[in-house]
Amino acid sequence: MAAPAAGPVFWRRLLGLLPGRPGLAALLGRLSDRLGRSRERRRRRSPWLLLAPLLSPTVPQVTSPPCCLCPEGVHRFQWIRNLVPEFGVSSSHVRVLSSPAEFFELMKGQIKIAKRRVVMASLYLGTGPLEQELVDCLESSLEKSLQAKFPSDLKVSILLDFTRGSRGRKNSRTMLLPLLQRFPEHVRVSLFHTPNLRGLLRLLIPERFNETIGLQHIKVYLFDNNVILSGANLSDSYFTNRQDRYVFLQDCAEIADFFTELVDAVGDVSLQLQGDDTVEVVDGMVHPYKGDRAAYCRAANKRVMDVIHSARTRQQMLHAQTFHSDSLLSQEEAAAAGDRRPAPDTWIYPLIQMKPFEIQIDEIVTETLLTEAERGAKVFLTTGYFNLTQAYMDLVLGTRAEYQILLASPEVNGFFGAKGVAGAIPAAYVHIERQFYSEVCSLGQQDRVQLQEYWRRGWTFHAKGLWLYLAGSSLPCLTLIGSPNFGYRSVHRDLEAQIAIVTESRALQQQLHQEQEQLYLRSGVVSSATFEQPGRQVKLWVKMVTPLIKNFF
């Protein structure tokens, strides 16, 4: 019997090596999915799982030898630059935020001083007074840019999900229509519609439930050359009492350019909101749910991958000019010439996951990081919705690193207290959590894999990402932060983006460590007694339905 973890990782890794063969890549993708589904039908995993680290493929090889002239050649994660652009920055340009209020106030302040561009990608924009404050800030900045003595020609681009942004009579679209009507030449609102919701399925699935098929889930907030990466949406709870993660990248022009181009690319394959609340397709683009699905996905793949490839080429050229030019300047000469940017000690890698378009970069990198985590290393992994893919679960259970997994207690789950079927979702997560905990215990892994539940009175929990501590280190050298939840939806259904931050800066490592500690301090360790507590009893019908619906939430 083959080791469960090895097969899917192997197939997925092959996908990254076949950029010019979409047919073969699709075939391997289907084989990978079939392997995953067959494993999920097994009630118990094989003890061969413990051999996963030995049978998993090795880290993707760096295509060129490490560079002795530049700092990019010194860290162990440089293989990621084979897949995506690598942005070297000074850690002084990176700031970790800790609270929803700080996130909200920073966004408002950044909008007010933006001169050239505001780019916002989110699942949706809420309809309350705090969301209206954001819209008012945008309106004020647009007004100032047009009335200034020297107009700055500020452009605003907003990318949301079509189904979530159209829910209800008052919705994201109605919130943004006044901006679009008043500044039609300066405001763009794009609404992504998944190509998988079409035909009879689109007609039959009601509002809210249609959001389970696939969403635009990227969360990027960009103001001139400053960027916020987060998992937070543009809604009042995310500004007040819904805990998430946020990182602020200041004066990072190349990173801002990349995410502007990425949002533009997804926007181009999305529906464009018009001033009369209708939507139109960009000229020459295949319609996402009326046109041919395969043709649409091919066009979307090309549009997004062109952004990734062109940015990667630009960064390679910049790297060569900076460190390998015949006229290489010393740091003192560069400073005298006016280039006073500090030498990079931190590297940013954008990781994109858009499985509907056969883009699986984030999945490949995440699986490789989990596969290569060595004995003695510690991985702190957090998700607001604990529903790991089978491949991720196999790697957690079958590799050698220590894991502390932070998840939401039922009371801080975003669906807690919801009406109708949605009200049973926290119980479904409890059922999934208990199954995973039982698996940990049956394999005797309780000392190596620990679950912790976040709880905070009056708050909900939405943080996602991971922190990697190498063996013998008390500080993390890598973090993943962005929109993915490590679940089936994130990998297979939705559009996702996060960044890997690799840093040698002790100050930034301490920031990341403090962020991790603050989140975990509000948690309790899960034990068998946890599931005996009042309110943790899962109804039989929820247990029966969960395997059928777990891939939709």
From TrEMBL:
Presence of keyword Cell membrane: no
InterPro entries hit by this protein: PGS1, PLipase_D/transphosphatidylase
Gene3D superfamilies given in the database record: Endonuclease Chain A (3.30.870.10)
Intracellular or extracellular location(s): Mitochondrion
Coiled coil (residue ranges): none
GO BP: cardiolipin biosynthetic process
Enzyme class per UniProt: transferase
EC number in record: 2.7.8.5
Keyword Amino-acid biosynthesis attributed: no
MF annotations from Gene Ontology: ATP binding; CDP-diacylglycerol-glycerol-3-phosphate 3-phosphatidyltransferase activity; hydrolase activity, acting on ester bonds
Major place of residence: mitochondrion
GO cellular component terms, A-Z: endoplasmic reticulum; mitochondrial inner membrane; mitochondrion
Biological pathway: Phospholipid metabolism; phosphatidylglycerol biosynthesis; phosphatidylglycerol from CDP-diacylglycerol: step 1/2; Lipid metabolism
Record's keyword terms, sorted: ATP-binding, Lipid biosynthesis, Lipid metabolism, Mitochondrion, Nucleotide-binding, Phospholipid biosynthesis, Phospholipid metabolism, Phosphoprotein, Repeat, Transferase, Transit peptide
Catalytic activity annotation: a CDP-1,2-diacyl-sn-glycerol + sn-glycerol 3-phosphate = a 1,2-diacyl-sn-glycero-3-phospho-(1'-sn-glycero-3'-phosphate) + CMP + H(+)
Membrane-spanning intervals of the chain: none
Chain's role: Functions in the biosynthesis of the anionic phospholipids phosphatidylglycerol and cardiolipin.
Family indicated by similarity: Belongs to the CDP-alcohol phosphatidyltransferase class-II family.
UniProt-recorded name of the protein: CDP-diacylglycerol--glycerol-3-phosphate 3-phosphatidyltransferase
Source species: Rattus norvegicus (Rat)
Protein encoded by which gene: Pgs1
